Amino acid sequence: MPQIAVVGAGIIGVAIAFELQRRGESVVLIDRDAPGKGASFGNMASIAITEFMPASRPSVWAQMPKWLLDPEGPVRVRPGYLPRLTPWFLRFLEASRPSRVKALEAAGAVLCSRVYEDLLPFLKAAGLSDVLSEEGCLSLYTDEVEFAADREHIAVLERFGFRHEVLVGNAIRDIEPALTTRIGKAVLFPENRSVRDPYKLVVSLTERFQALGGKMETGDVTGFERLDGGVRAIRLKGGRTIDAFRVVLCAGAYTGSLARLLDEPIPLETERGYHTQIMTPGISMRHSIIWPAKAFMVTPTAGGIRVGGTVEMAGLDAAPDFRRAKVLVRRAKEALPDLQAADASEWMGHRPALPDTVPIIGPSAKHAGVFYATGHGHLGLTYAATTARLIGDLIAGIAPPIDLKPYRVDRF
């Protein structure tokens, strides 16, 4: 039986591979590393259906100079990388036009509004329904000034009908006692549930995929053998080839180099994110928390508490700067004053970032049988089941349940 090659074994690729295999396709999953060892290993474990707003919106641009001048700010660009980043930033600026922002908000809302419609059946089919927490996420504000600064976000959620509840004073600590009394207001997003261990989810999905007959191959993709306007095989480093009559490219931040091999460049960058995993935190938490004014997130996951956030633009090859992880922990202790961080490990990973924040999901514009699923940014875990559903429908020749034009590869 002719096989489909899925390149990239993070949460997006593994979800697609499992979905295709359970639909009766013959699938080979290819990655340079073991499944889940990239960005999926260290994400913030959040099904963040309320976090689809484009990063290019004008209110972000207004704060960008201040952030870039602050070495501890939420966005950091390493000076030596700036010349290479300039074309991406110009597209980022183009995506900040008010009319464009509204279209991008709508595209993100369409995906987020159907997350659980796809995710819950997907997890049930994999026998993994128990990986989701029952609790949501709290967005924190010390006072009305901080809340007003985030009002744009809340207004967008209200416009698209996403559920939320405003809490004040002791009502906040009634549901999350470890929080400081400095927090005077919070917004509860009840549907922003967490995954109990995102890396184990990828590993478990890979096991289900293989149990259905799916194959794994480890290796670096170095090229594609083309035939009649499509791809017939994938070349790996060392000279091996893997026959495939269809190919799905979903290698996260590394998808850009694969697309260039097919003469189909996409403006994909890496947002380097940091986390600290604390295994004996000295507190317990039910909800994940976000403090927008401090630009960090804390999630109970992977047997402990994970502190993450921040964006660093420095490319795929620069060494990590773990000072950024330490800043996040310091800020987390402002929200959680009894948090202990002695038993902890630090991590850095690469989120695939497109300048308009909306992922690429759909067929190649140049090559028959080639599909892209990349650029999900910090919503890879959130969008994984939906992306798998959409790619599965495209490959099966079934009309997808949404219009895929906003997510096309040639929109830039």
For the structure shown, list the relevant keywords.
alpha/beta; nine-stranded mixed sheet; 25% strand; globular
What does it look like?
- The protein is an alpha/beta fold.
- It is 34% helix and 25% strand.
- The chain is built from 13 helices and 18 strands.
- The strands form 3 sheets. Strands 3, 4, 5, 6, 12, 13, 14, 15 and 16 form a 9-stranded mixed β-sheet that branches.
- Helix 6 crosses helix 13.
- It is globular and about 65 Å long.
- The model has no long low-confidence stretch (mean pLDDT 95).
Question: Could you outline the blueprint of secondary structure elements for this entry?
Answer:
Layout: E1 3-7, H1 11-22, E2 26-31, H2 39-42, H3 58-69, E3 75-77, H4 82-94, H5 98-113, H6 115-125, E4 137-141, H7 144-149, H8 151-160, E5 165-168, H9 170-175, E6 185-189, H10 198-211, E7 215-218, E8 221-227, E9 230-236, E10 241-243, E11 246-249, H11 255-261, E12 269-278, E13 288-291, E14 296-301, E15 304-313, H12 323-335, E16 344-353, E17 360-363, E18 370-374, H13 380-396
Parallel strand pairs: 1-2, 1-11, 2-7, 3-15, 4-13, 11-18
Antiparallel strand pairs: 4-6, 5-6, 8-9, 9-10, 12-15, 12-16, 13-14, 14-15, 17-18
Helix pairs in contact: 1-10, 1-13, 6-13
State the helix count. Answer: 13
pLDDT averaged over residues: 95
Share of helix among residues?
25-40%
Taken as a percent bin, the fraction of beta residues is 15-25%
- From the N-terminal CA to the C-terminal CA, the straight-line distance is 36 Å
Could you say which overall geometry the principal axes of the C-alpha atoms support? Answer: globular
What structural category do the secondary elements indicate? alpha/beta
Unreliable stretches (pLDDT < 50, length at least 5) are: none
The gyration radius over C-alpha positions equals: 21 Å
Largest sheet: 9 strands, mixed
Counted beta strands: 18
Q: Assembly state here?
A: single chain
